[in-house]
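[SOLVED] Need 3D model of a four-part complex

Original post:
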Amino acid sequence: MSHTLGIRQAQKQKTRQAFLDAALALLEEQSLSSLGLREVTRAVGVAPTAFYRHFRSTADLGVALVDEALGSLHPMVRTTVSTTGDSEERIWRAIELIARHVDAYPAHVRFIARERHGGVQPVREAIRAQLVRFAEEVKTELAKDPEAAGWSDDDLLMLAHLYVDQMLITASLFLEALEAPAEERERVTQLATRQLRLITIGRGHWLD
Amino acid sequence: MSHTLGIRQAQKQKTRQAFLDAALALLEEQSLSSLGLREVTRAVGVAPTAFYRHFRSTADLGVALVDEALGSLHPMVRTTVSTTGDSEERIWRAIELIARHVDAYPAHVRFIARERHGGVQPVREAIRAQLVRFAEEVKTELAKDPEAAGWSDDDLLMLAHLYVDQMLITASLFLEALEAPAEERERVTQLATRQLRLITIGRGHWLD
DNA sequence: AATTCCAGAGAACAGTTGTTAACTGATGAC
DNA sequence: GTCATCAGTTAACAACTGTTCTCTGGAATT
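Solution:
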């Protein structure tokens, strides 16, 4: 089924990935709106003009980064809000999953948190669209739970957005605590756990 | 009590304010990390070197903007979570207050949302410090409520941070809906109201 | 084997950037 | 009234930016 790419296309994708990686590294200490095209090509080790073979602009590269950073996250979302286990167990599992994701892809998390409200409109729009998709997936997952009986579609989506935003806040907190001592990371875990617990309690009494 | 500033100091403060205003306007469509010193002086109508009479760098200017944008917000916070009225009324009042603030100071709100996770470390740090102060104020305000009886200090602070983050999320949503039809703004109001209501419910059953 | 394609290189462009130094002239202190 | 202060100016600097056009050499197609 899968067609082996020609040498040419393979090399091109390799260079493209090098652009994405270099950009992500450079964005650790600046925003996308100040990322220069020459800066990226210099980091990759190619001529400035090579950039145009892959992207129209740095904004275009940013949109590609959004896909890389969030596209692979969709499968994980289903696991995060899966319905197995009691609520306390589910909360702990969700937080743990977030913490591990931040450990594994800190640059991705930083990029999304930074550019969600950043200075480049197309990138903001791309992130927004993906987060809306996330919320919709969370919503359908929530709907499967017996606890969701009697909930309106609007209320389910409202709760889903609350979960997604809370997920991002928590991820950002873990990111800030990345190089901090384990004690600080534990503090974040405790905070996030209790916030999620409070939301879960509110969810349980929503229909009262 | 107040000393009338000399002509010199008055003029200097006037120019300084012009810098802040011009920067805030320029930051509507870019991030601070890409804001150039010359760009700002050009907008103000002054020589590039005049910049150094007021700020060491654009990062320094950013920190000043944080103070302007968040410093004046502290009195408002107390009103937002004040204990008068029933909970439904308090929720409505808080959302209304946020909506009005976004209408009055959209550029300030945009700046804070953008630079909270932005590419300039000192500015991020300044915002973080102010938000921690906010959370502490909210916490002492929450502690006054009879509903807070039996709550630990940690739990109160946890809830306070939840409120502060939720406040920022809501403000950001109103900002995106600024130029949208009234229908969209109403949708945001409904969403924010119900999210805050769910948190309030969770708060009410926290000690169960 | 001959030909087309195309990722990347090279050079040059006008325009921008932050920062330095030495200046001007009104204001403030005495 | 004299002199020091200091907000803002002017000129110049090397370094950098995005974008254009032309070229090259190996892969793909025929």
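Edit: The radius of gyration of chain B is 20 Å.
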